[in-house]
Amino acid sequence: MSLLEVRDLVVKYATRQGEVEALGGVTLSVNPGEVLGVVGESGSGKSTLGLAILRLLPRYARVERGQVLYNGADLLKLGEEELRRIRGREISIVFQDPYSSLNPVMRIGDHFVELFEEHGYGYSREEALRRAGDILERMGVPRERLSDYPHQLSGGQRQRVAIGLALALNPKLVVADEITTALDALVEAQIMDLLREVKKEYDTSILFITHNMGLVAELADRVAVMYAGKLVELGSTGEVVGDPLHPYTKALLAAVPSIGGSREVKPIPGDPPDMRNPPRGCRFHPRCPFATEKCRAEEPVPRDRGGRIVACHYA
Ligand SMILES: Nc1ncnc2c1ncn2[C@@H]1O[C@H](COP(=O)(O)OP(=O)(O)OP(=O)(O)O)[C@@H](O)[C@H]1O
Ligand code: NI
């Protein structure tokens, strides 16, 4: 049984230049306790997927179609009250910028006190701070930091606090959206170590969003590859990384910097499409070295190939 099922999700943003289809019918599931990597270039729809799951999309975004099933209930249909209960306690999110989860004028400890209060835990302040300190220590932050303000911490420590907050209520799923992207290489490696520990010690599933296939290979059990709002490949990390079937996955892997090399990912030749006017047929065809007439005309549907899902006419 999967923990979360996204079915045929279509999300559009209203912009001054017209509607942008950020998700073009994405279907995937997250299993209990797994890390599902979601990888793709900028603009492929990764953050939109994460935000849609938590119903945090901006007002001018519209879910045109689809379902997000959690414990059999469609999160897209829940009322505000039920949503508030689910956010934080069942599903939480960590962003690239830790200030998205931290209030600059609130001490670190009070973030936890408030979170426990909001969810009706009924702890005394002392008890809440004791638990917060325990969480900080598990995240590798000294408990003395409880009385600090966010700006007194390093970027890495702030992100550790944000991860601690996301895990504080023992949620079943954490959405981690590019959470190492703003950090330098050394701190990124430390946060990856922390995530590996979290994976071992918590039974939380993680939707690990990144543009870096190298990080996915380090951490994820399965990986979903997205291109221009479409899921193009999904499978176990070993299979996808060892034997990519979609030309876009191959290109992404070729762009991974070799160990010891520069951290900057080599860009894939060509540009991602203008999403106000995406290519007909397969959205990757203008950049695909193997594209044929069929790819220009006909959109490939994701098909199950022995547990691997691939959307390519020629995979
Ligand atoms: N707030 C917004 N208003 C209008 N269009 C948006 C908005 N957010 C995203 N989009 C558009 O939706 C598409 C998907 O964006 P999204 O942020 O989900 O991609 P992403 O894969 O997370 O990219 P990145 O790696 O840059 O974070 C893009 O074409 C983007 O321009
Ligand atoms: Ni994003």
Walk me through the structure.
With 315 residues, this protein is α/β, with parallel strands linked by helices. It has two domains: 4-90 and 171-310, P-loop containing nucleotide triphosphate hydrolases (Rossmann fold, 3-Layer(aba) Sandwich), CATH 3.40.50; 94-170, no CATH class. 31% of the residues lie in helices and 24% in strands. It is built from ten helices and twelve strands. The protein has helices spanning 46-53, 80-89, 108-118, 125-138, 155-167, 185-201, 213-219, 237-242, 247-254, 293-297; strands at 4-15, 18-30, 35-39, 61-70, 73-74, 91-94, 173-177, 205-210, 222-227, 230-236, 303-305, 308-310. Strands 6-7-8-3-9-10-12-11 form an eight-stranded mixed β-sheet, sandwiched between helices. Strands 2-1-4-5 form a four-stranded antiparallel β-sheet, covered by helices on one side. The longest helix has 17 residues, at 185-201. The radius of gyration is 20 Å and the shape is globular. The model has no long low-confidence stretch (mean pLDDT 95). The protein binds adenosine-5'-triphosphate and nickel (II) ion (NI).
